Amino acid sequence: MREMKGSGLRWAGEIPVDWKITKGKYFMSVLERPVKDNDGVITCFRDGMVTLRSNRREDGFTIATVEAGYQGIEPGDLVVHGMDGFAGAIGISDARGKGTPALNVLDCTEHKEYMMYLLRAMAYSEVFMALSTGIRVRTCDTNWRKLRELNYLIPSLDEQRIISEYLDHKSAEIEALTADIQVQIDTLEQYKRSVITEVVTKGLNPNVEMRDSGIDFVGTIPAHWIMHPVYYYFGERKKKNIFGLENNLLSLSYGKIVRKDINTNDGLLPASFNTYNIIEAGDIVIRPTDLQNDKRSLRTGLAKERGIITSAYIALMPIMPVNTGYFHYLLHAFDVMKVFYNMGNGVRQGLNYSEFSRLMVMEPTRAEQDAIVSFLDAKCAEIDSIIADKKAQIETLGTYKKSLIFEYVTGKKEVPETVTVVSIDPHVLRLAMIADMPKRSKGEIADQKLLYLCDTYLGLGLSTQYYRWDYGPFDKQLYSYIDTLVSNGWYKVNIQNKAKVLVRAENHAEALEMYGNQLAQNKSDIEKLVQYFGEMRVSEIERFATLFAVWNDFIIDGIPAPSDYQIIDDVLTNWGPTKGRFSRDTWQNTLMKMKRDGIIPKGLGLHTLPKPEGGKSDA
User: Fold this and answer.
1) How far lies 303's CA from each of 253, 278, 281, 308, in Å?
2) pTM strictly above 0.85
């Protein structure tokens, strides 16, 4: 245990006795490079990436007409965002370009990567916010004059390097996990959009007679549905809050109408709400502004209560006996298909009610409208619950990363003398865990199908590409996973009843410790999955995985509720002749068991691809 001393800095607490405390002006300097003609704009993002804006995204930024005060930035420059640094916008540039005067572009005689992590720890500890003069909400004004007068924790250069390299490694691990979870969230969001779009334009009955809608982005609709412009069903609610009597302030946020504090002093609200519109429960709100620049926001919302909302929005009130929930889902589907962006006009591409209300919409029977709303409310709630859990996981990882940085840049934790950086594909560790669990069916065929269901049913590996192999979905990296387990001395391959079975080898304890640590968050789910299939024969597991893959592909293709006949027919038609060894009744029984036990796909992961010519067929 190293000896510690008080730092005299409230945010840092105790630090190692051999560390120094030095003001920034003694080892940092501000750089003032000229701009070159071909420089692209560099942005310092809140996740700490400092890169050309074109490397991330171009939309959502305010474009400067006059680039007054812009400065040149070189790869390796330490950059602290003057307004967003408090939120982690601190990093090392990876490109040549130009940046706004809001960026502090710095050089230093200490280790830059360590200094980057130290500055982030200071930001997370609200050191920068304490310096703010309150010029803007959710931002601060951290300039060079303030940075140079701050006190910094300075270990030896060698220890700075060790700390930064260790934090690089740990950050990369956390970011990889975060990226994988974000892929799962994005896939779930896409699945939700596809379900909504399919149901509001095709209905819930897959066997209904269809006809051409005459609208390219809609395609066919049920033949008995009728079509009219929006104005046939909805008028515009334009009731001003003239006397300011209504004070339930509402806002359209991420596709939902939410309450907002009318008494907040964050500077983003008007002095008076007399010009705001009063809306009622059941009204549909459309944000029709800035269609040219903002193509990311969700522009529709359904009011659940009476309140007031900005008059810049269109408020649609029903004038026919319809379920406004259905029409909100329909307009939401049009929104995510970017239909509104072709309707706007003017400099900022806006719409008024007269223009918007000419949009053609479909009208199912009232009973169908009610059924569709009930189905989508339940389905969206289920998906949103899963997404909320995933977002909570990302938040937990973010908090852990911040605490990790703080502990090491303040010396409260010391980097182990020998840190072995081992990069192991998560599939390798999942395969090890599956191999260790008791089950009736052993061998690479069963293990591969269980890996597939971990990836796609549990959502643990949504970027993995699977192929339509003879015995079900197959990952071509399977044999490299097995080779890793064998080469590390964790397992060896034995032949049991003609199956290649993984059995424990001399270094098995390492595998146990590694997957015990890295799969702790998913251990319970994997165990439940393997236990469910534990008593099944290989052939039954194969049928489960194949049916799941086919059904999942249908959902990815925009068909959320394929019939049993469609699923089984696709298996027998598109997965090779080996599937014909099971009768259609056998496939049907397996599919019924899947539905009964809730093994239902959600359209997650990648669409399976045909088996490559000449591919091995033993897994």
Assistant:
1) 12, 11, 5, 10
2) no
Q: Which two tokens stand for residue 377?
A: 């409310």
What pLDDT, on a 0 to 100 scale, did the predictor assign at position 421?
A: 45
Map tokens 């719409």 to a residue.
Answer: 351
H or E element at residue 367: helix 366-409
Contacts of 311 by beta carbon, 8 Å cutoff, 6+ apart: 238, 240, 275, 276, 277
Q: What is the DSSP track for 533-590?
A: HTTS-HHHHHHHHHHHHHHHHHHHTT-SS--HHHHHHHHHHHS-GGGGGS-HHHHHHH
Exposed e or buried b per residue across 375-407, where buried means at least 16 C-beta atoms within 10 angstroms of its C-beta: bbeebeeebeebbeebeebbeebeeebbebbbe
CA dist., res. 221 & res. 360, Å (int)? 13
Angle at CA 39, nearest 5°, toward 33 and 40? 120
Number of C-alpha atoms within 13 angstroms, CB side, residue 508?
Answer: 12
List 317's β-bridge partners, or say none. Answer: 235
Q: Cα separation of 531 and 438, whole Å?
A: 8
Residue 39 and residue 99 in contact, taking contact as beta carbons nearer than 8 Å:
no
Tally Cβ neighbours within 10 Å of residue 411: 23
What is the spatial distance between Cα 52 and Cα 438, in angstroms, rounded to a whole number? 52
Q: Which residues pair with 106 in a beta bridge?
A: 30, 78
Round to whole Å and give the CA distance between 170 and 514: 15
Phi, psi of 391 (to 5 degrees): -65, -35
Amino acid at 191: Y
Pairing state between β 210-212 and 234-236: unpaired
Six-digit token pair at 248?
Answer: 């339930």
pLDDT in tens, 195-250: 899 999 999 998 899 999 999 889 999 999 999 999 999 999 999 998 888 999 99
The predicted structure's pLDDT at residue 615: 54
Tell me how far apart the alpha carbons of residues 352 and 313 are, in angstroms, rounded to a whole number. Answer: 9
Alpha carbons within 13 angstroms on the beta-carbon side of residue 33 total 20
What is the C-alpha to C-alpha distance for residues 489 and 506, in angstroms, rounded to an integer? 6
Amino acid identity, position 120: R
Distance CA 544, CA 446 (A): 11
Query: pLDDT at residue 67 above 80?
Result: no
Look at residue 138 and tell me whether its pLDDT is greater than 60.
no
- What is the secondary structure of 179-226 as a DSSP string? HHHHHHHHHHHHHHHHHHHHHHHH-S-TTS-EEE-S-TTT-EEETT-E
pLDDT at 368: 97
* C-alpha separations of 455 from 157, 449, 465, 522, 524 in Å: 43, 10, 10, 11, 15
- pLDDT of res. 137: 47
| Amino acid 618: pLDDT | 53
Look up residue 492 and give its two tokens.
């060896």
- Say how far apart CA 581 and CA 573 lie, in whole Å: 13
Distance CA 602, CA 465 (A): 17
Between 5 and 130, the more confident residue is 5
Alpha-carbon distance of 162 to 408, in angstroms, equals 10
Query: Mean of the per-residue pLDDT values for the chain?
Result: 88
